[in-house]
Amino acid sequence: MGAGEKREDDGNEVEEEEEEKKEKPEKVVMMKKKKKSKKQVMIMKKKERRSRATARLTKKSKKLKKKREEDEKRRKEEEMEEKHMKK
């Protein structure tokens, strides 16, 4: 009977754990976003504007640089052709 008693004890423990789980249903907690102050919002907007502006400038500067390089290549080719024509 000693083994039978242990089984009952084990069964009771398992049942108690299951009851505790039923009593405390798992809650899905949604993290609330903290409301940002006006000052923080203004700072964020300012940073976004600056980053967009710098992106725009870098894009333009890359285009201009590429254009300059192409123009220089054309000039060099034209000069080389003129030199060959003179000879």
From TrEMBL:
Bias-annotated ranges (Basic and acidic residues): 67-87
Protein name: Uncharacterized protein
Feature: compositional bias, Basic residues: 30-66
Compositional bias per record (Acidic residues), positions renumbered to this chain: 10-20
Stretch list, region Disordered: 1-87
Organism: Heligmosomoides polygyrus (Parasitic roundworm)
